[in-house]
Design brief:
Layout (H helix, E strand, L loop, with lengths): L14 E5 L1 H10 L6 H10 L4 E5 L9 H10 L4 E5 L3 H10 L3 E4 L19 H13 L3 E6 L3 H10 L3 E5 L1 H5 L4 H19 L3 E5 L7 H5 L6 E4 L1 H10 L1 H22 L1
Parallel strand pairs: 1-2, 1-8, 2-3, 3-4, 4-5, 5-6, 6-7, 7-8
Length: 259
């Protein structure tokens, strides 16, 4: 979610962050050490991804503390640590110093992250929460809806990055509903970039939905996980990532040629 140092632009290569949480989900289903997230990270890097995303949840349902330690020590790719804004997670992030943390809402009963963080409704607390992380050199990303109010609040609390929630776009029926959701992502990315934030996007992206999002010139990075791990069952992880990488590059290239 946050592997580069500058903002997105139409002439820049769109980065791909790969979430490997569900490699750990598969391991945990049986116990033991296989499949190994570190081995997955090596394959992700070899396939052309730019960063790793891992979500250390309160209930440790997939990634666990030992994975964070092992992946940090391996230093294969820059790590984006997704986490809830709790004191426990702040302590872990300060100890590990990932490239970035992405703050997300988290409910124990949810299957996956269901919506964006309400930054505007929790602005004072989040501003105090991110300050020590930023002081330690950790980049701050906030997972939010493409809502101007949330984008502006993210800037106010000291975020470096906003990751715009692509779930409503991905899950919308093709046609007017999907086009309306895409328009919100386009305007949200422009608004974030105008404020000096680095716009990223993620959640639910797949081969059939990534192209229009990759074509939005302000996006610097897309983060994709569950779909790629699921596709790997059929084609292999490297092949799935290489195809996604190629589709992103093709869409960004077409958008640049048309501008």
């Amino acid at each position: 979610m946050s592997n580069g140092e500058g903002g997105g632009a139409a002439t820049e290569r769109l980065r791909l962050g790969v979430n490997i949480d569900h490699v750990a989900t598969l391991r945990n289903a049986r116990g033991g050490a296989h499949p190994d997230p570190v081995r997955a990270a090596q394959l992700v890097a070899g396939a052309g991804a730019d960063g790793l995303t891992i979500h250390l949840r309160e209930d440790r349902r997939h990634i666990v503390d030992a994975d964070v330690e092992a992946l940090s020590a391996a230093a294969i790719l820059p790590i984006n640590l997704e986490m809830a804004a709790t004191e426990e997670m702040a302590s872990i992030a300060l100890a590990r110093r990932p490239n970035a943390v992405c703050l997300v809402p988290e409910r124990r009963e949810e299957r996956t992250t269901e919506g964006g963080l309400d930054v505007a409704g929790d602005q004072a607390r989040l501003a105090a929460y991110v300050a020590p992380l930023r002081a330690a050199g950790v980049r701050i990303s906030l997972f939010i809806a493409p809502d101007p109010r949330q984008i502006e609040a993210s800037k106010a609390v000291g975020a470096d990055i906003v990751e715009l929630h692509t779930g409503p776009y991905c899950h919308a029926a093709p046609g007017a509903a999907r086009e309306a959701a895409l328009a919100l992502l386009q305007s949200g990315a422009r608004h974030a970039a105008a404020l000096g934030l680095e716009p990223h996007a993620g959640h639910g992206l797949a081969f059939d939905s990534v192209g229009p999002v990759a074509a939005i010139p302000e996006f610097a990075e897309l983060n994709i996980g569950h779909f790629l791990i699921g596709e790997a069952v059929f084609t292999g992880l490297e092949a799935a990532i290489r195809r996604m990488r190629a589709m992103m590059d093709e869409s960004r290239g077409r958008a640049g040629a048309a501008s």
